[in-house]
Amino acid sequence: MAAETGSGDPLARELSRGRVLWLRGLGHQGFLMGAVVLGVIVMMAVFAPLLAPMDPFEQNLSARLIPPVWDDRGSWAHPLGTDHLGRDYLSRLIYGAQISLLIGIGAAFISGIIGTLMGVAAGYFGGRVDMVISFIITARLATPVILVALAIVAMIGASLEIVIAVLGLLLWDRYALVMRATTQQICANDYITAAKAQGCSLARIVVSEILPNLANNLIVVATLEVANAIILEAALSFLGLGVPPPLPSWGLMVSEGKSYILFDPWLITIPGVMLFLLVLAINLVGDGIRDVTSPEGRN
Amino acid sequence: MSASALSDTGGIPALELRRVTRDFHVSAGLFAGKRRLRAVNDVSLSIETGEVVGLVGESGCGKSTLSKVLLGLLPASAGEVLFHGEQMSHQKRRAVAKRIQPIFQDPYSSLNPRRSIGSIIAQPLHVHGFGNRTEIRRRVSDMLDVVGLPSRLAQASPAQLSGGQRQRVAIARALILRPEILICDEPTSALDVSVQSQILNLLLDLRREFQLTYLFISHNLAVVEHIATRVAVMYLGRLVEVAETRAFFQAPRHPYSQALLDSIITPNPAEGIPTVHLGGSFPNPIDPPSGCAFHPRCPHAMPRCATDAPRLLTDEAGEIACHLTNMQQGA
Lengths: 299, 331
Known about the structure:
The complex is a heterodimer of chains A (299) and B (331). Chain A is mainly alpha-helical and 299 residues long. Chain A contains 14 helices and no strands. By secondary structure, chain B is of the alpha/beta class. Chain B has a single domain (2-268, 283-330), classed as Rossmann fold. In chain B, strands 6-7-8-3-9-10-12-11 form an 8-stranded mixed sheet, sandwiched between helices. In chain B, α4 (133-146) crosses α5 (163-175) and α5 (163-175) runs parallel beside α6 (193-210). The interface between A and B is large, with 30 and 43 residues.
């Protein structure tokens, strides 16, 4: 008996769970890199009014297409140059972080709620409910997202809110698939049977037994979907049916720069690199969270 | 019966099963429609307060389905379950939960890895509306003490505990509502041999302390002999023999019980692996044999066994369903 209670990892017992996660996060290189880049971009978005040297909407047609400072013709008045309407590119880039993050997080949040509800219902109830929901998921998987999004935006007009809503209503499929499979696994555990045998209500079983065990996978899928939504918004904006001008979306900036690609390529490269960095950082953070928090996975 | 000395029940059994049957409908193929699988078939059993009934049988014979029916997790297709003479189907889910609680085989899957030990044990109290936080904390710490765990483990997470400690937590959770009956589904088979006896002795101590009644499901006959006062043998959804433990292990009467006891592997390697006269494999439960379900494997099968199903008859030594004994008694 004494030997039995004395077992267990003594180190793990000394440290609280939060501290253990913190230490493991610090030891994960991918997570650290992603977190630093993501942190910088989030700071850019939050403090955009303080950081931006100029008004991102102010046009100056006498100072069009000025190249960045590293070019011979550039100057520190416009560190990243100006676009075809003479707007300061650095300011537009900084404000563009707001749009990208807003769309990414907004769309991932809406689709997360839809997908999680469907997935948990399918996984928990099984049988007919599962059959119907699986059919809806399959139907959704067979739908081309870009095409449907383009059609809807073309019909009802483009605005920031509509782009977020359309992407949110289209991107729930991965949530639903992952949550369904994970809920099925969780429900096979005896602690769910024990909760039923205690007389727990359905709501209590879902909230206190199933959801905490879904959290890991939910966070990982959510980060993937944030990145996915940001890329889709850029694609829609590039095709001219995303965020309407003059909002400084990175995708729109690439789109507006495409006629100047031969002579002023930085107009495309700079927002393109930012999109790449943001999506990479989000994916690194998502993978890192999965590695750091999974209760048994310390690989 | 030794159990009746424990408490005065006025002759009403703590738990009584009356002709309980549970069917499942399984898909037999894409166009074949559904076929009926009778997992529990016409089981009648009464358990007195303070008794420990060991339920034994092969994998797939319906033991676990029967335990789910008793816990109210699966409705019986036919028949009734009674607690102290009251029908379970007439009671609310939570009223049943207060009287009967499960202990599971696998202590790794029976505790939610995301919750602390304290909140796992306190969960039934929350469900049943005990609001007072300090009272709940006191009861949890008392219960940890009862099952032999230090109360500081209330803050630990299940991942920090060993298998034996986890099973103690599962027992504490089952006992915190002060139920009368515990359904133990193979509670020791996932544990190390050295820990098994600790858990068994804990269960026996708790039986005295809390006036508990156990239905102890196991395929480990040594464990059943150690803990049970009575043994019930199940084969393909039916009870084939019920007897007092001592009598059962000295002289099992049903041919299937005899084969089960012969199959125990002794620690003496010179005796080799026992030969069990159970030719053939376990029959398909979707398509059970006619007559006595055991007759294709029975060394004493008679022509009558293939046509008539023997009824479970009561005599002075217990209950048995076999034409062989019924015939000898009839003579």
